[in-house]
Amino acid sequence: MRISLPLALILSVSLNALACGRSEQADVSRPSQAPAGPPTHLQIDGTRFRTAQGQPFQWRGLTAFRLVDYVADKNEQEAEKLLGWAEAQKLTVVRTLAMGGGFMDLKPQEGRAALSRLLILAANHKLHVEVVALAGTMDMPVNLDEQLSTLGETLESHPNALLEIANEPTHPSQVPAVGKPDVLVALAARVPADVPIALGSIEADESFARGDYATWHAPRDNKLDGWAQVLGVAQGAEHLQKLKKPVVSDEPIGAGVKYEPGRRDDAPARFRASALLTRLAGLGATFHYEGGLQARIPEGRELECFNAWNEAWDLLPPDVESQGTFRVAGGQGAAVQDFDHKTALGVFERTSGSRGWVLSIGPGDPALKLSPGWSVVETKTFEGARLVTVARQ
After folding, report:
1. Is 190 left (phi over 0), alpha (psi -120 to 50) or beta?
2. Angle between the N-to-C axes of helices 144-156 and 181-188, in degrees from 0 to 180, rounded to the nearest 10
3. Are residues 56 and 129 in the same domain?
4. What integer pLDDT is reported at residue 36 of this predicted model?
5. 3-class DSSP state for residue 290?
6. pLDDT for residue 23
7. Nearest CA to 360 among 319, 312, 328, 393?
């Protein structure tokens, strides 16, 4: 396998060009609802989240779409199973739907009634909940104003709550109004100011980045025997640098029992590499998988993929996202000047002062050519990737 030089060059040029950029559209403003007391929910500090007490917060998330539905159906034990398991894996966020049809039947009013109880259950397991307010609105009627106003009141009362207004706003499953950024901005104004808000995923239109933080669904490119979707994670760093607010990789390609190009992947190696690259790029990370639609604990191949993905938090420092600068190999100021393009598909790094971490994606030794003063300290080799720790004298 081989990647052409233009991809790395394009990424490098894009990152440099966007470093000073900023969306021209105004962000959501909720001045009339500014909190009177000390903060209660997660806070935004540049491109990072912090707790209400000012401590760094790691976004280590999990798809769990049906959690609210379990509570609404008086089936709390199923929700408890998933939440207890997530806590044991040291996860920090579960992402769930406040309404939806298809694989579940959760009417908006039922979701609103059950949400407070779910937030209490999640808090007992030290988990935050990213609540998606609008999903499948084309098939399930909902009063948009009522949905956001009522959810906002509930979320304000629970410090472990965050809100994403719409899941994939421009998707055909959403009514046309949901696909308009200005509509979602107006809906966001109905939510108390202390509740962190994302409007909806930005890959189709960056105008949806006008919330407190942004969500992004990474490309699901199946080229290069599936490894192109891993390389595509680096594009998230462009959004991060341009928007200057937290960006969460909220629904990348999901794990499944078999490989389905563009939808599900069954290779643990690619999930490990994707999580490492997500963290180096400075993004929040959410593990997406088929069983997550039903909020089931991963098992079999999906569990193997999750375990590989979850290794990223042991392999890299806990605060790596907030350290230094993310770069593509060969870019301005990079520790890696060049590499063997026959054995590596792409090389990415994060360096801070005299230390750094380099991720090579590809089947062989990348033969890194380091900038003067940099040297290799340690190399860890995995299927399809190498993680190299470097230092500068």
Report:
1. alpha
2. 40
3. yes
4. 62
5. helix
6. 40
7. 328
- Considering the domain architecture, whether residues 36 and 133 belong to the same structural domain is answered as yes
Residues 338, 314 share a domain: no
Give kind and range of the element (H or E) at residue 163. Answer: strand 161-166
Tell me, yes or no, whether 2 lies in a domain: no
C-beta pairs of 44-49 under 8 Å, 24+ apart in sequence:
44/196, 44/212, 44/213, 44/245, 44/246, 46/244, 46/245, 47/240, 47/244, 47/245, 47/246, 47/247, 47/282, 48/246, 48/321, 48/322, 49/196, 49/213, 49/246, 49/284
* β-strand partners of 198: 164
Digit-coded pLDDT (tens) for 213-263: 999 999 999 999 999 999 999 999 999 999 999 999 999 999 999 999 999
Residues 235 and 333 in one domain: no
Is 152 part of a structural domain of the chain? yes
Tell me the C-alpha distance between 232 and 238, whole Å.
11
Domain count, the chain: 2
The DSSP bridge partners found for residue 56 are 50
Query: What is the signed CA dihedral for 143, 149, 151, 156, rounded to 10 degrees?
Result: 170
Q: What is the pLDDT of residue 4?
A: 34
9 is a domain residue: no
Helices 108-124 and 76-88: crossing angle, nearest 10°? 40
Give the amino acid at 328: V
Do 110 and 196 sit in the same domain of this protein? yes
What Cα–Cα distance (Å) separates residue 305 from each residue in 206, 301, 313?
30, 6, 14
207-239 burial: b if 16+ Cβ within 10 Å, else e:
bbbbbbbbbbbbbbbbebebbbbbbbbbbbbbb
The answer to whether the predicted template modeling score (pTM) of the entire model surpasses 0.90 is yes
Could you tell me the residue range of the domain that residue 180 belongs to? 21-321
To which residue do tokens 């109004």 refer?
177
Whether residue 235 contacts residue 277, with contact meaning beta carbons closer than 8 Å, is answered with: no
Positions of the chain with pLDDT lower than 70, given as ranges: 1-26, 29-36
**In this predicted structure, what is the pLDDT of residue 6?**
35
Distance CA 159, CA 156 (A): 7
How much is the mean pLDDT over the chain? 92
Reference 113, options 164, 165, 161, 69; nearest CA is 69
